[in-house]
Design goal:
Layout (H helix, E strand, L loop, with lengths): L2 H10 L3 E5 L4 H12 L3 E6 L8 H4 L7 E4 L5 H10 L4 E4 L6 H6 L1 H22 L3 E5 L25 H20 L3 E6 L1 E3 L9 H10 L5 E3 L6 E6 H13 L21 E4 L6 E3 H12 L6 E3 L13 E2 L4 H7 L7 H14 L1 H27 L1
Parallel strand pairs: 1-2, 1-4, 2-3, 4-5, 5-6, 6-10, 7-9, 8-12, 9-13
Antiparallel strand pairs: 9-11
C-alpha cells in the first residue's frame, strides 16, 4: 500500500460520507476507495432498476447504505443528512449525457441546478463539514484563444449541459462565500476507465464497437479537436485529496474582493499534457492497442435545433490542485487505456445488452437524419 493509501485510511476511517448519484461511473470508484479506507458510506440513487448497475459490477451494493431518492427532493436530502449525521458530502448526481440534456432541457436544469442548490442548502442547515461538488471543464465554454483553462476563466457554458454545470459551479461558490459553507468545486476533464457504461462516449464506445468488429463512430468535424483525458482512479483520488484539504478554520484567509476571490474554492483536475489527444489520435491509439483497424464512421452534423455546440479544444491548467493538495495523476494514458480495454473484454458478455441498445439508438438516429436530408 502506498503512502497516499495509508494517509487516506488514517483520515477517512470512521468518517460518515454521502455520495449523491452513487451508481455513477466516478461515484462507484470513489465509494470503493472510501470503503477500503474505513469510511462509512451512504449513497443516493434515483433509479431502483437498471438494465445493469455498476453497484453490482463492483460489488458495492452490500458495502454501502443506499437511499432511493431524487436530489430535487429537498426534504428527503435534509432528512438523510440529519438522521445519518453525515460529515462529508460528494455531490456527483446529475444528468450527464449531453444528448439526453439536449432532449430534456427542463429536467436537466432542474436536476443539475436545483438539485445542487438542494444539496448545498441541506448541508448548510445540517452543518456538514466538507462538501465537494462536481462541476466540469465544460462549464468554461469557449476560450479557444486562452487555453489552458485556469480557475479564473469565466464560466460561460452555452449548451444545456454546459450551462447547467456553469450554474451549479457558481451556486456552490455563492454558498462558500456568502454562507461560509465548507465547499469545493471540481472541474474535471474527460474521465475514462473501467465501468463507464455510457457507450455514446468516445472511449467505451470505440472499444466495444471494435470488440464487436464494428467501426468506431466519429462526429463530423470532431477529428482534430483536442481533449484531455484522466483515468477514473486518479479522478477519485483527486476528490479525496480535495475533501481532505478543507480546513474549517481557514475562513479568515479567504479574499473577499478582487480577482483572487473568484473561483477561490474551485479546482481544475486534469492529467496534464501527456493526457491530451485529438479525437482521431485517440481512436487510432485504441485501434493499435486492440489490433483492429476500421475506417471510422462519420456522423454528419444534423444542423437542427438540438445541435451541440462542440468546442474546438479543451484542456486544463491543474497546477492549483497539485500545489494546494499534493495530488498528482498516477495512471499514464497508455496504461489506463490498456487496463480499460482489458476490462471491457472481460465483461463483454455482461455489457452486451447495454451496448446493443446504444447501437440501436445510433442506427435509429441515422435513419432520422437520412429522412431529414431527403425531405
Amino acid at each position: 500500500m502506498n503512502n497516499s493509501a495509508n494517509s487516506n485510511s488514517d483520515f477517512w476511517h470512521g468518517k460518515r460520507c454521502l455520495i449523491t448519484g452513487a451508481d455513477g461511473f466516478l461515484a462507484t470508484h470513489l465509494a470503493d476507495k472510501l470503503v477500503k479506507s474505513g469510511a462509512l458510506v451512504w449513497g443516493t440513487v434515483r433509479n431502483r432498476t437498471r438494465l445493469l448497475s455498476r453497484l453490482d459490477l463492483f460489488k458495492l451494493r452490500d458495502r454501502i447504505s443506499l437511499f432511493y431518492c431524487d436530489i430535487r427532493d429537498f426534504r428527503t436530502l435534509f432528512d438523510i443528512l440529519a438522521a445519518e449525521h453525515i460529515d462529508t458530502v460528494f455531490h456527483l448526481a446529475a444528468t450527464s449525457i449531453v444528448m439526453v440534456a439536449s432532449r430534456t432541457p427542463l429536467a436537466t436544469l432542474e436536476s443539475n441546478i436545483l438539485g445542487t442548490a438542494n444539496i448545498l442548502e441541506a448541508c448548510r442547515q445540517t452543518d456538514v463539514q466538507r462538501v465537494v461538488v462536481a462541476a466540469s471543464d465544460k462549464a468554461y465554454g469557449d476560450h479557444r484563444s486562452s487555453l489552458p483553462y485556469t480557475e479564473k476563466h469565466a464560466l460561460r457554458g452555452l449548451h444545456v449541459y454546459d450551462c447547467s454545470k456553469s450554474c451549479a459551479d457558481l451556486i456552490t461558490q455563492t454558498y462558500f462565500f456568502q454562507f461560509g459553507l465548507p465547499a469545493r468545486v471540481t472541474r474535471l476533464c474527460n474521465i475514462y476507465g473501467p465501468g463507464d457504461l455510457n457507450f455514446s462516449r468516445l472511449i467505451p464506445g470505440s472499444i466495444t464497437r471494435l470488440l464487436d468488429k464494428k467501426a468506431p463512430v466519429i462526429h463530423e468535424g470532431q477529428g482534430p479537436m483536442k481533449r484531455e483525458y484522466i483515468h477514473v482512479a486518479d479522478a477519485a483520488e483527486a476528490y479525496l485529496q480535495i475533501a481532505k484539504s478543507i480546513d474549517l478554520s481557514d475562513r479568515q484567509n479567504i479574499p473577499s474582493t478582487g480577482e483572487e476571490a473568484y473561483a477561490y474554492c474551485a479546482y481544475n483536475v486534469g492529467s496534464g499534457e501527456a493526457g491530451i489527444k485529438t479525437t482521431s489520435d485517440m481512436i487510432e491509439t485504441i485501434q493499435n492497442f486492440m489490433g483492429k483497424h476500421f475506417e471510422p464512421t462519420v456522423i454528419p452534423k444534423q444542423r437542427k435545433r438540438y445541435d451541440y455546440l462542440e468546442l474546438p479544444d479543451q484542456f486544463l491548467d491543474s497546477s492549483k490542485v497539485r500545489e494546494e493538495t499534493g495530488w498528482e495523476p498516477r495512471v499514464a494514458l497508455e496504461d489506463g487505456l490498456l487496463e480499460t480495454i482489458s476490462w471491457y473484454q472481460t465483461h463483454r458478455d455482461t455489457l452486451r445488452p447495454l451496448f446493443e441498445a446504444e447501437i440501436r439508438r445510433q442506427e435509429e438516429e441515422q435513419i432520422i437524419r437520412q429522412a431529414a436530408v431527403g425531405a
